[in-house]
Amino acid sequence: MMLAAALLVSAAPWPDTPQARVEALAVLQTLNANLLSHDSATLTLDRWCADHHIAQPATVVAERVRGEDKPATADIRAALKVTPDMPVAYRRVRLRCGDHVLSDADNWYVPARLTAAMNDALEQSDIAFGRAVQALHFARHTLSATLLWSPLPDGREMTGLPGMPLRPGRLAIPDHVLEHRAILATPDGTPFSLVVESYTSAVLDFPPPAG
Fold first, then answer.
1. Structure confidence at residue 68 (pLDDT)
2. Which domain of life is it from (predicted)?
3. How many domains does the structure of the chain reveal?
């Protein structure tokens, strides 16, 4: 189901044409497939930023959002397989490539299942979670992957693109375009993190393919 969101004008010059809309949908589907086929969202965004020349250097960094706390719900605790009295930490970050915020991420994790060095890094720095726990050789188990916006109208398979309404100027894109929910687990299957990642319109901050 599509989520309502305020429309923004993309920082990149995506025109509001049928061809650009088809290309934008293909780009989002490619990003979604890349995220689903790799365990680390951070490393996937590194490659995305580099491949699409979004910023130089093409390295994703985490920007901590402090002063917010979202205690783990009963459902989150159940997904993490923790007892009611086991501490679950919360961390919110923006994943940024240069000046482009590609993702907002909420992360609930179990400190007791990480090393002391990992916990220190997560508490005291802005390191991306995937980089901090990379030594665990974790696996990512996707719970849901939701396209929050489609550049093409519903029913296009019946009406086709020529009848699609156009707005003049650049393509208006919502603030967030894709959401993933996933569990990170150690090789033996022990879950240690639940993440909710909301990918922003900045994943399209590059010129559309020449057509």
1. 78
2. Bacteria
3. 1
CATH number of the domain at 74, please. Answer: 3.40.1410.10
Whether the pLDDT of residue 156 is over 60: the answer is no
- Domain limits for position 131: 12-150+172-204
C-alpha span between 134 and 6 (Å, rounded): 35
Tokens representing residue 174 in the block = 């919502």
What pLDDT does residue 168 have?
Answer: 56
Nearest to 76 by CA among 104, 120, 106, 105: 106
Give the closest residue to 41 by CA, choosing from 90, 97, 89.
97
Contacts of range 84-90, beta carbons closer than 8 Å, 24 or more positions apart: 86/110, 86/112, 87/111, 87/112, 89/122
Distance, CA of 110 to CA of 92 (rounded, Å): 15
Q: Is the dihedral of CA 184, 186, 189, 191 positive or negative?
A: negative
**CB-based contact 31:178 (threshold 8 Å):** yes
Q: What is the C-alpha to C-alpha distance for residues 62 and 39, in angstroms, rounded to an integer?
A: 17
The pLDDT of residue 161: 55
Per the domain annotation, does 123 fall within a domain? yes
What global pTM score does this model have? Answer: 0.83
In a domain, 7, yes or no: no
